[in-house]
Amino acid sequence: MALNAWRRAVCSTRLLAQTFDAGAQLRAKSSHSENTNIFIREALKELEYPVKLQKLLLTPQREVLVELVITKDSGEIETYNAYRVQHDDSRGPYKGGLRYHPAVDLDDVRSLASLMTWKTAVMDIPFGGAKGGVTVDPKLLSERELEKLTRKLVQSIKDVIGPHEDIPAPDMNTGAREMAWFFDEYSKFAGFSPGVVTGKPVHLHGSYGREAATGRGTVFATRELLKAFHMGGIAGKNFVIQGFGNVGAWAAEILADMGGKVLAVSDAWGAVENAEGLAVKELRRHLAAGGKLADFPGGQAIDKDTILAHPCDVLIPAAIGGVLDEETAKDVQAKFVVEAANGPTTPGGDAVLRERGIEVLPDIYTNGGGVTVSFFEWVQNLQNFRWEEAEVNKRLDRCMTEAFAAVWDIHRQKKVPLRTAAFVLALQRVTRAHIHRGFD
Ligand SMILES: NC(=O)C1=CN([C@@H]2O[C@H](COP(=O)(O)OP(=O)(O)OC[C@H]3O[C@@H](n4cnc5c(N)ncnc54)[C@H](OP(=O)(O)O)[C@@H]3O)[C@@H](O)[C@H]2O)C=CC1
Ligand SMILES: O=C(O)CCC(=O)C(=O)O
């Protein structure tokens, strides 16, 4: 069914060029999901879709809220709120990570689930978008308590997930360990099901290359961006990274391996700089041995709150959402912002960066390497087969390069920012899937 047929079928042409903004009207204050919708609506202006179609694209298909109860090591009973939001499955099973964070709420998860829909579409992998979250500070729980919590989560949402329905993965404060518990618990109910979750340990049906994939994909994305702006390669460029967890640390290590200078990095507790470039592998060894960023002997401690204003060629936010707002964006001293984190820039921050001529490579493309290698892991699980790491990385490189070219084409043709171009591409792909599948 062509778009015109959709128009005839469900919508009066009078409504065509309006932009659906019921969420904005309902919500008095700004929220992560509303911020995401502002970006989507900006792209929708380029597409002139019917209002009802816009509503369908913006609205999550299912939101699950559960309460997880565990007995703590102390014998006390504790409860935690957990969420799984399934935004869109028109292009394939729902897909998206699982975040453990004290500040996570339904609105965050709603926003992150929507971003997953557009990310899988930009990367052109056959998945939809979902996200999960548990409101918990995992640093306050023992390993045994975390395992109980993860198993309780599986018990609570097992009926809405599955290898062909919804496939979780790691996000902030979750990794291979949690994914192994998840796979084990789900398999108790459904039988052996490695494809129910990705990001598993390599020795337990995980894929080579998944752990580093988001960071590696961010580096490939940065390489393509620099090339498109005729700025040469990674070698010799200066980078600053906020967040030194899975994504930030792998991006830093791969950038340094390629000759980039990582001038400064931060985490939730501190930051460290070295004007000659940090020895990233040494820094990671220092942290693995229990050290802090601030006491790394190969650099000088700096105030973590200055990290986004640190001068560099490329600033890479790789931690939480909403850090680049109207105020902090004014202080950025970088030529490019490469969004490895999900939703690091607010619409207000985006406008400031745009005015200041700072180019932003958006999250729904930049950090798509993680879900792309999750797709490779899922395919390997379904086939009971394993690819070599070199094969995984080569395929990831190709996907990142092709997706960049597709976004860049729209950026040039429509003369829109890269973020809008990425959303236009994703909206077109998701809409095409909906129309081909039909609505009855
Ligand atoms: N893991 C993945 O495959 C993917 C992750 N992403 C996104 O990348 C981002 C990072 O995820 P990931 O690396 O997996 O998460 P991790 O939990 O591994 O690491 C998060 C990092 O951010 C730091 N951090 C947390 N809060 C702050 C803060 N307020 N200021 C500065 N740093 C902070 C943490 O510090 P500390 O350790 O001190 O708490 C840690 O260094 C998230 O936005 C996530 O959604 C996107 C795609 C895939
Ligand atoms: O690997 C995945 O399936 C999803 C990772 C994720 O949560 C993300 O890309 O934000």
From TrEMBL:
Keyword NAD: yes
Cross-referenced CDD domains: NAD_bind_1_Glu_DH
Listed Pfam families: ELFV_dehydrog, ELFV_dehydrog_N
InterPro entries: Aminoacid_DH-like_N_sf (IPR046346), Glu/Leu/Phe/Val/Trp_DH (IPR006095), Glu/Leu/Phe/Val/Trp_DH_C (IPR006096), Glu/Leu/Phe/Val/Trp_DH_dimer (IPR006097), Glu/Leu/Phe/Val_DH_AS (IPR033524), Glu_DH (IPR014362), NAD(P)-bd_dom_sf (IPR036291), NAD_bind_Glu_DH (IPR033922)
UniProt site (Important for catalysis): D171
Keywords recorded for this protein, A-Z: NAD, Nucleotide-binding, Oxidoreductase
Positions of the Glutamate/phenylalanine/leucine/valine/L-tryptophan dehydrogenase C-terminal domain: 207-438
Gene3D superfamilies: Leucine Dehydrogenase, chain A, domain 1, NAD(P)-binding Rossmann-like Domain
Residues that bind substrate: K95, K119, S374
Gene Ontology, cellular component aspect: mitochondrion
Keyword Iron-sulfur: no
GO biological process: L-glutamate catabolic process
Catalytic activity: L-glutamate + NAD(+) + H2O = 2-oxoglutarate + NH4(+) + NADH + H(+); L-glutamate + NADP(+) + H2O = 2-oxoglutarate + NH4(+) + NADPH + H(+)
GO molecular function, one term: glutamate dehydrogenase (NAD+) activity
List of catalytic residues: K131
Protein name: Glutamate dehydrogenase
Organism encoding this protein: Elliptochloris bilobata
